[in-house]
């Protein structure tokens, strides 16, 4: 309880007590450093010494061990990741170096994007060169089916109220099957799954890579596509195609298992479509299940991504018809007058 009589949650008291002990500063305070879509939270210390970041992963909700194991794996491969200064694994607390406030998403712009993306590609190539350890999760059939289900259950049905007839179900399933087969047919490397500017910190050397705990063994085109077709930041399509070609040349020179450029660009497009559909489902689920509604504001970005690339791929025309005939009208009906 504070002097004003306010009741302080037990976890908040535990977090502050642990941070003060780890910092060696009895008078240190904590302020929110960032907000995460999951249960993990980050807090910046304020006190006499240099600021640090406290990661709070409540046991039973967010196990900190996978994050630590992946951090160590990436650091061993030369990837720039946050340094761990103190840890209490059982209680879910870590003390990390403070990499600063803004993410790359907040500092990148049209003028500096080439330089920052070249630096990000440096980190990505190091990550992809790491051999996935034995027993690592697989970006395989089960995960792809789950992703497809997110789009259908949460975005189409729950958010837009769309129930497909038999013909519509068949067309969507055919498109999803083709996307899955493409993903399963690509060469496999270590995949971050959210390698985008929001999860990169603009420090030197770097950028530093964050939010890597869900790495899996998966398709080689996935992370490059995620970097340039971000969930929160869009670029002109010709520029994206140029960056993908730049990544491809550097990956080939590094000995990574990329196919010919034409095939890689097709794979990146299809991987992007698969990811965009999944994210539409996740954003709807965050709104309806978790009460986190801000993500729905980015739905138009993903519709625009689909509009950009679907015309390139007639094999996915069923998805384009669904977008034009059902999704776009349903979104327009939900828009405020």
Question: Could you explain the architecture of this structure?
Answer:
The protein is α+β, with helices and mostly antiparallel strands and 337 residues long. It folds into two domains: 10-97, Phosphorylase Kinase, domain 1; 104-334, Alpha-Beta Complex (Aminoglycoside 3'-phosphotransferase, Chain: A, domain 2), CATH 3.90.1200. It has helices spanning 10-23, 65-76, 104-107, 113-129, 141-159, 166-185, 222-228, 237-253, 261-288, 299-309, 317-334, and strands at 29-34, 41-46, 52-56, 84-88, 93-97, 188-191, 200-201, 208-209, 216-219. The strands form three sheets. A five-stranded antiparallel β-sheet has the order 1-2-3-5-4, with helices on one face. Strands 6-9 form a two-stranded antiparallel sheet. A hairpin with a 5-residue loop joins strand 2 and strand 3 (52-56). Helix 4 packs antiparallel against helix 7 (222-228). The radius of gyration is 21 Å and the shape is globular. The termini are far apart. The mean pLDDT is 94.
- Head-to-tail CA distance between termini: 46 Å
Let me know the number of strands. Answer: 9
Q: CATH homologous superfamily of the largest domain? A: Aminoglycoside phosphotransferase (APH), C-terminal lobe
Spatially, the strands of the biggest sheet line up as 1-2-3-5-4
Strand content: 5-15%
Q: Quickly count the domains.
A: 2
CATH architecture of the largest domain: Alpha-Beta Complex
Blueprint of the fold:
Layout: H1 10-23, E1 29-34, E2 41-46, E3 52-56, H2 65-76, E4 84-88, E5 93-97, H3 104-107, H4 113-129, H5 141-159, H6 166-185, E6 188-191, E7 200-201, E8 208-209, E9 216-219, H7 222-228, H8 237-253, H9 261-288, H10 299-309, H11 317-334
Antiparallel strand pairs: 1-2, 2-3, 3-5, 4-5, 6-9, 7-8
Helix pairs in contact: 4-7, 4-8, 5-9, 6-9, 6-11, 7-9, 8-9, 9-10
């Amino acid at each position: 309880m504070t002097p004003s009589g306010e009741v302080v949650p037990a976890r908040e008291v535990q977090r502050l007590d642990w941070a003060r002990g780890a910092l060696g500063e009895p008078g240190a305070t904590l302020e929110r450093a960032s907000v995460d879509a999951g249960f993990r939270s980050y807090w910046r210390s304020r006190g006499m010494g240099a600021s640090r970041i406290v990661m709070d992963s409540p046991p039973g909700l967010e196990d900190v061990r996978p994050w630590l194991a992946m951090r160590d794996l990436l650091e061993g491969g030369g990837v720039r990741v946050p340094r761990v200064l103190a840890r209490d694994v059982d209680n879910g607390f870590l003390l990390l170096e403070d990499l600063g406030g803004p993410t790359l998403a907040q500092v990148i712009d049209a003028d500096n994007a080439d330089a920052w993306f070249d630096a990000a590609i440096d980190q990505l190539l190091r990550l992809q060169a790491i051999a996935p350890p034995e027993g690592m999760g697989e970006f395989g059939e089960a995960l792809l089916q789950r992703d497809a289900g997110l789009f259908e259950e949460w975005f189409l049905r729950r958010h837009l109220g769309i129930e497909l007839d038999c013909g519509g179900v068949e067309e969507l399933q055919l498109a999803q099957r083709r996307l899955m087969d493409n993903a399963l047919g690509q060469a496999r490397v270590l995949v971050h799954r959210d390698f985008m500017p929001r999860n990169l910190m603009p420090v030197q050397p770097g950028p530093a890579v964050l939010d890597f705990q869900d790495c899996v063994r998966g398709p080689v085109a996935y992370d490059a596509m995620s970097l340039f077709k971000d969930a929160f930041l869009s670029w002109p399509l010709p520029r994206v195609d140029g960056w993908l070609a730049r990544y491809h040349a550097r990956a080939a020179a590094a000995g990574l298992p990329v196919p010919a450029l034409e095939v890689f660009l097709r794979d990146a497009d299809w991987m992007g479509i698969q990811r965009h559909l999944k994210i539409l489902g996740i954003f709807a689920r965050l709104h309806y299940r978790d009460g986190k509604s801000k993500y729905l504001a980015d739905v138009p970005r993903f519709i625009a991504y689909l509009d950009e690339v679907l015309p390139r791929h007639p094999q996915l025309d069923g998805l384009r018809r669904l977008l034009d005939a059902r999704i776009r009208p349903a979104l327009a009906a939900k828009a405020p007058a």
